[in-house]
Amino acid sequence: MKRRVPPRRLLYFEEKAARQGFRSICGLDEAGRGPLAGPVVASAVILKERHFKERIDDSKRLTARQRERAFEEILHKAWVGIGQVDIDLIDRLNIFQASRLAMERALAVLKVKPDFLLIDGRVPVQTDQERWTLIHGDGRSLSIACASIVAKVSRDRLMMAYDEQYPQYGFLRHKGYATVEHLGALRRHGPSPIHRKSFRPVWLAQGGLHADID
Fold first, then answer.
1. Domain coordinates of the chain in residue numbers?
2. Which end of the chain has the least Cβ crowding within 10 Å, N or C?
């Protein structure tokens, strides 16, 4: 398979930062802000190479198989940090602050310190580095797209493991999102230990198995 040349739209911000003198440019993204269960996972990615055999794009535009193949290639062609915030902290802090903390944890475990950050969304990451925050950055920056894939695959694998512990909820299929199947399982069984008690559908289910959570 030939190496893919990234679309120009995915290199604009990396090249703009490089023209300003930055050399270690890091993309940051998270996965799992919306689900009712499971952790939020973030990834920080500094690319060693910009050409990939696999398709690199916003993780939501890829199939699960495409994400898995891209994930393995990214690990070989980038410095990668992964940060996770579990359910207790999500409920204590709120999901926005938990997402920020997950990104900061991902940055902290990078082997190479970045001098510039490209951050998906408006997350106020508390670091000293210069940064740009990009709405829909996972579809606009190659580094953020790689981070989105790493975060998504990492979180999906965690939810697959949780499915073995709590098979009655169907985590393997919906990864904790509020699908009809998942809401029905909440009605029948109530919340599991990995459900986010501060999220309204879970809070209602916790108050009684017959609560109306639609």
1. 8-164, 165-207
2. N
Which of these, 94, 212, 131, 73, lies nearest to 102 by C-alpha position?
A: 94
The full DSSP string for 19-72 is: HTT---EEEEEEE-SS-SBS-EEEEEEEES-S-BSS--S-GGGS-HHHHHHHHH
Domain 8-164: give its CATH code. 3.30.420.10
Q: What is residue 1's predicted lDDT score, i.e. its pLDDT?
A: 54
CA distances from 26 to 5, 51, 55, 167 (A): 19, 16, 19, 37
Judged against a pLDDT cut of 80, whether residue 3 lies above it is answered with no
Q: Which two tokens stand for residue 15?
A: 């090249």
**What pLDDT digit, counting tens, does each position of 88-132 carry?**
999 999 999 999 999 999 999 999 999 999 999 999 999 999 999
In the chain, the amino acid numbered 184 is G
Sheet order of strands, 25-31 included: 78-85, 40-47, 25-31, 116-120, 130-134
Structure tokens at 182: 């998942």
The tokens for 109 are: 């475990």
How far is Cα 149 from Cα 170, in angstroms, rounded to an integer? 22
pTM, to two decimals: 0.92
